[in-house]
Specification:
single chain; 417 residues; alpha+beta; six-stranded antiparallel sheet; elongated
């Protein structure tokens, strides 16, 4: 939490310097110094006791607010880009701020009182009003910045990461903030340190909405590489969640990240603790769920690792034997080569998995192309089935013979449509 606060409050020194030379921070009723806009709302039925924003010509932004009388004033600082300052100036012009008649002020009791001060192009004006509908586009822009500052503060103070997700997600309607990328660095820190599964999930999702797939993947890979085992296990569990609500472009990045972690553990797979095995089982299940065919060589190798006994083999390869049938044509050759393996259980597993490639409905996503369907079934029936027949008739292992029979039945049936 302390590190997160430091990251979020990092611009404060720059803004303090700006404020120290700018008399406008005194919130006087004159536009002075480097101020472009000052806006304050108080009273009415607002969830805030007051909320205000000061924007300087160099883009520095100060947001202050308090939710109720007992809460201390909160402050957030950040900076606008040149194009955002230009957009703000364009809004001032489009609402004809300097020409709005005082009769446009509508008294609405539940909205409280507002102060809006603008100093631009040699003109200065300050309005005190209840409601002026004509300035709504301008104040909506300012409220995005106020919301942005409040969410930033809440994230630093109480780890309210769900509010960040709601603000940046492309699934929550009109944008509530102006600068989604302002949360990139604090989210990165949070993902590297949080021990809360749900909040970590929200942070991973939120970061996806404000980064490119490449950036997102690098941040997650770095977090995994530099984390202690307990945090790495937690983050892997999050990334292995089926159907994680992410942009499609980012979801496609996950399997490569997961495979990298499986490869790191490959040499010690048979020595994983029960807790770690549970984590890495979920990782392998996700590789199968996503049909990530580059993982096949690693999974085939893990199937052949030496295990102390049959129960250990079945336990440590359970997820592998579930994932491999999902890999379509890429799994046929390596499994065929295992039909002559010297270990009974490996031969039996290979035989079972070959038949299980036909078990999933090819018309369900991800859909198997007609060409691949034809190739897989033809290969199983013309090349692999004769080898399974021979195994069924003469293999010394009863488990291998039974597995061969089950697969032959599946191959005779065809695709499970």
């Amino acid at each position: 939490m302390i590190l997160l606060k430091k990251i979020i409050l990092k611009p404060l020194g720059l803004l303090v310097l700006f404020l120290s030379i700018s008399p406008c921070y005194g919130m006087s009723n004159k536009a002075e110094g480097s101020e472009i806009i000052f806006y304050r709302v108080e009273g009415g039925y607002s969830p805030y006791r007051f909320a205000e924003i000061l924007i300087a010509r160099n883009g520095a932004v100060l947001v202050k607010y308090a939710r109720n009388r007992s809460q201390k004033d909160s402050t957030a600082v950040f900076k606008l880009e040149t194009n955002e300052i230009d957009a703000l100036k364009a809004l001032v012009s489009s609402v004809n701020f300097f020409d709005i008649a005082s009769t446009d002020n509508v008294l609405v009791m539940d909205v409280g009182r507002s102060t809006l001060r603008v100093s631009l192009d040699g003109k200065q004006r300050e309005l005190h009003y209840g409601d002026i509908p004509k300035v709504a586009p301008l104040t909506a822009f300012l409220w995005k910045l106020i919301n942005q500052g409040r969410i930033l503060n809440d994230f630093a103070e109480t780890e309210e990461v769900y509010n960040v997700l709601s603000a940046v997600s492309g699934n929550t309607g009109p944008a509530r903030i102006l600068q989604p990328k302002i949360y990139r660095e604090p989210l990165t820190v949070f993902i590297s340190t949080s021990s809360n599964h749900q909040k970590l999930t929200w942070a991973v999702e939120a970061l996806a909405w404000i980064t490119t797939p490449g950036e997102w993947g690098r941040i997650l890979s770095n977090a995994l590489e530099n984390s202690e085992e307990s945090h790495k296990d937690l983050l892997l569990t999050v990334l292995s969640t089926p159907g994680l609500p992410l942009p499609d472009s980012h979801a496609k990045v996950i399997p490569a990240i997961l495979l990298k972690e499986v490869n790191r553990k490959a040499k010690a797979w048979a020595k994983l603790s029960k807790t770690q095995l549970k984590v890495y089982n979920s990782v392998v299940y996700q590789l199968g769920y996503s049909r990530y065919q580059p993982s096949v060589p690693t999974l085939i190798k893990l199937m052949q690792d030496p295990y102390p006994d049959l129960n250990s083999y079945l336990e440590y390869t359970s997820s592998i034997r579930s994932a491999l049938p999902q890999m379509e044509r890429s799994v046929l050759d390596p499994l065929e080569s295992l039909l002559t393996n010297k270990t009974d259980e490996i031969r039996a597993s290979a035989a079972d998995i070959l038949g299980e490639t036909l078990d999933r409905n090819p018309n369900y996503p991800p859909i198997i192309t007609p060409e691949d369907m034809s190739y897989i079934l033809n290969r199983l029936r013309t090349v692999i089935a004769p080898k399974l027949e021979a195994m069924y008739k003469s293999d010394p292992s009863e488990r291998a013979r039974n597995a061969a029979k089950r697969s032959l039945d599946r191959i005779a049936r065809g695709w499970n449509k």
